Amino acid sequence: MPRLRRSGEGGDRAARETQILGWILVAPAMLAVTVLVLYPLIHGFKQSIRSGGFLFGEVPGYVGARNYRDVLNDPTSRDAMRHTVEYVVLAVSLEIVLGIFVAVTLHRVFRGRGIVLAMLILPWALPSVVSGVLWRRVFDPDNGLLNSVLLRLDVISAPHVWLASGRGAIVYITLVHVWGVLPLISLIFLAGLQSIPDEVYSASAVDGASPWRQFRYVTLPLLRPSMAIALTVGSLLAISIFDEIYVLNGTALNTRSILIQVYNTTFVTADFAHGTALAFLLAALTALLGGGYALLLRRVTV
């Protein structure tokens, strides 16, 4: 009996030492998260519930939710929110449809498939700023590639300013964003397709299912987990769209997103109180959307 007790005490001691070692190894990461994430969040939230400060000739003080009401009632902020919704809806719709099409195409083995996959990843590998600079050369109204081609084909009679209109400019910027994100979404769907057993298609073919019915009743239902992941990733990236807009059209009102509005309010006009309030509203919206997608992912995978 004493021998068993010593053995049990030794096991408890080893478990405690393992737990202590785990805390020691995790402590640097926890410290980094506290310094780099939690402290700025707390300080930013305190700033969002205070007045503008000395830059506006007033003594900083607690104002509660007034800054949040101000940004929600601001027409420019509301337009930026509407533009962001348009970016998200259009980008996610194109990414899902085109991503499935590209994944189904690349799922088949053909000569040169590896080269096509390498070329597919290239737009995602490029930084978004670089993509914006490349596409700015395409949409340039003076000597851009798009105007040059259309003029040579006599489609247009004069150079066109592509990013001057409201809805049209949003569509063009969204296409640039989709060009960069589509490879990631396609790879997500391609991984989902590769996880579907071939026996499922063989059994459906024996039952007389055509390729279209196989796609509709076999592929799409089994791709629901991948679709939930693609929706989450695509939506979060579209909400945080910034570089493409800023490089292509700056802070113009007709294409301004919420992040552009946050940047303009905080760093251009130096209104830190309203800028941080708008940033926290965006963070809350993103968290709600991410939570909704997480519940959707859990439901379709259970």
Overview of the structural elements:
The protein is mainly alpha-helical. It folds into 2 domains: 2-46; 76-301, MetI-like (MetI-like fold), CATH 1.10.3720.10. 78% of the residues lie in helices and 0% in strands. It is built from 13 helices and no strands. The protein has helices at 2-48, 66-73, 75-107, 113-125, 128-139, 145-152, 166-194, 198-206, 211-222, 224-239, 243-249, 258-268, 272-301. Helix 2 crosses helix 13 (272-301), helix 3 runs parallel beside helix 7 and helix 3 packs antiparallel against helix 10. The longest helix is centred in the first third of the chain and has 47 residues, at 2-48. It is flat. The chain starts with a helix and ends with a helix.
In brief:
It is built from 13 helices and no strands. It has helices at 2-48, 66-73, 75-107, 113-125, 128-139, 145-152, 166-194, 198-206, 211-222, 224-239, 243-249, 258-268, 272-301.
Fold topology:
Layout: H1 2-48, H2 66-73, H3 75-107, H4 113-125, H5 128-139, H6 145-152, H7 166-194, H8 198-206, H9 211-222, H10 224-239, H11 243-249, H12 258-268, H13 272-301
Helix pairs in contact: 1-13, 2-13, 3-7, 3-10, 3-12, 4-7, 5-11, 7-10, 10-13, 12-13
